[in-house]
Amino acid sequence: MKLHWSPRSPFVRKVMIVLHETGQTDAVELVRTPVAMAEPNLGLIPDNPLIKLPTLVLEDGYSLFDSRVICEYLAARAPDGQGQALFPVDPQQRTRVLRQQALGDGFMDALLLFRQERNKTEEKQTVAWLKAFALKTDSTLDFLQNHVAEIETVGFDMGAITIGCALSYLDYRFPELNWRRRAPGLASWHADVFVSRASVAATEPAETP
């Protein structure tokens, strides 16, 4: 398989963590594929018309996107039932995991747009958008802090992975926000459970272009 990949994408990191957790890193060739909102990578179009990462190309040339679909595919093909730890079979547990994954994915989407707007020159920024993204960031952190017990009482599943990737992206791109002050319980979980995981350490964002 071939994975269109970037060392700093939080959505790619989700996929990489799943590969490490399920022992499938050797099954995938990583292809460095730069993408940018203002500079679409035309070479990615044959595999993904949305020109987005991650994109997984299977052995027969069939491509999968986005991270949610890719992660579930990799979990399903994992040996020895390892994927069930990421996506539980029990319907109630599975719904909880998918809900947390959706929250983490939505958080990362908002943060990517937040960063895009902040990177504009001041005269081109839309103040209302910056305020809206800041509000979404604060409200999501408050929600996660208020529901941290739900995250703490379950295993290292797909919901926990996605939320952890979102928080680590906050560290990487928004260090000045000091989110731990707002969500101390969440910060403890992130440090003690997420960051300490071997698969997380192996997928730290790189500074390469």
Strand order of the largest sheet: 2-1-3-4
Structural classification: alpha+beta
Gross geometry: globular
**Mean pLDDT value:** 94
Topology readout:
Blueprint: E1 2-5, H1 10-21, E2 29-32, E3 55-57, E4 63-64, H2 67-76, H3 91-118, H4 127-146, H5 148-152, H6 158-173, H7 179-182, H8 184-194, H9 198-201
Parallel strand pairs: 1-2
Antiparallel strand pairs: 1-3, 3-4
Helix pairs in contact: 1-2, 1-6, 3-4, 3-6
Keywords: Transferase
Organism: Advenella kashmirensis W13003
Pfam family, one: GST_N_3
Structure description:
The chain is α+β, with helices and mostly antiparallel strands. Strands 2-1-3-4 form a 4-stranded mixed beta sheet. Helix content is 53%, strand content 6%. The chain folds into 2 domains: 2-83, Glutaredoxin (3-Layer(aba) Sandwich); 91-201, Glutathione S-transferase Yfyf (Class Pi), Chain A, domain 2. A hairpin with a 5-residue loop joins strand 3 (55-57) and strand 4 (63-64).
In short:
The protein has 209 residues and is an alpha+beta fold. It contains nine helices and four strands; from the N terminus they run E-H-E-E-E-H-H-H-H-H-H-H-H.
Please tag this protein with its features.
single chain; 209 residues; alpha+beta; Glutaredoxin; Glutathione S-transferase Yfyf (Class Pi), Chain A, domain 2; 2 domains; four-stranded mixed β-sheet; 9 helices; 4 strands
